[in-house]
Amino acid sequence: MSSSRRLGIDVGGTKCLALALDANGGVVDEQRRPTPKTADLLIETVTELAQAMLPWDSLGVGMPGLVTRDGTLRAAPNLVGVNDLLVGELLGKRLGCFVRVDSDATCAAAAEWKHGAGRGVDDFVMVTLGTGVGGGVVANGALMRGTNGFAGEIGHMVVDPDGPPCPCGRRGCWERYASGSGLAWLARRVHDGKGIMRVIDLAGGDPSQVRGEHVAAAAREQDANAVAVVDEYSRWVALGLVNLTNVLDPAMFVLGGGLAVGADVFLAPIKHWFGELLYAPDLRPHPSLAFAQLGEQAGAIGAALLADLH
Description:
Layout: E1 6-11, E2 15-21, E3 27-34, H1 39-52, E4 58-63, E5 66-67, E6 73-75, H2 87-95, E7 99-103, H3 104-115, E8 124-129, E9 133-139, E10 142-144, H4 174-178, H5 180-191, H6 197-202, H7 212-220, H8 224-248, E11 252-256, H9 263-277, E12 288-291, H10 298-309
Parallel strand pairs: 1-4, 4-7, 8-11, 11-12
Antiparallel strand pairs: 1-2, 2-3, 5-6, 8-9, 9-10
Helix pairs in contact: 1-2, 3-10, 5-7, 5-8, 7-8, 8-9
């Protein structure tokens, strides 16, 4: 490895997680802070985290949204008001070093590629299913970033032009259906017909508090309505994976994010619908489907690895 101690910071919608890695890629230190609501406070928070984790030999930062090759955050749908933020430049001035910046999902892909479910696979797509849907692509043994650095914004493929509004400003984006919040929305839509009472019970009796994990828990109990919601959700997930297969022809999909803990509930129906929706399914190999192994640490681990991958 090129550095003896590498620091990675993953900026999420609710928290900033910092991890220090040793020369073998092992996590040796960890700190976290709540994600602030303004651009100035965000830079200040990341700076404080980096200083609190000294000493380190390199720093990488993962940001949620469109990140240019020079480290500018152009747009971040789930960070309100944080646009055109010169993350790399501002952090570099404050810390006196070069700071590598990439999208959080590309960082997660790097982590799973080097230390997780994608080890040894030179063509795979990382799909993060959380508040939104992010993506990172490894093609021919290298991270795919695109001309501007924006490759991997797979959550904003439009799968239903008449679908629900998306924070990006359009309607019917894949993440409105395939994210954790999308799963909860699908369940609440069923509730309009009073069909998910067990899910609501698990959410404390309040339909507005229903989350993806409540649907998964009810499905594990074999609640018929929850199982039906999981099936519909899995079809939407599979639709996006099929679209990506037609474009990229990967060997593997790695599913991460908050819903990765529900592999026992989601894997079988996603595989079923993938086979149903794929073009010429009987005449081609299917990409394998795995769930991420590194959990919430993937983004920060991948950010720390950026020094070795650029």
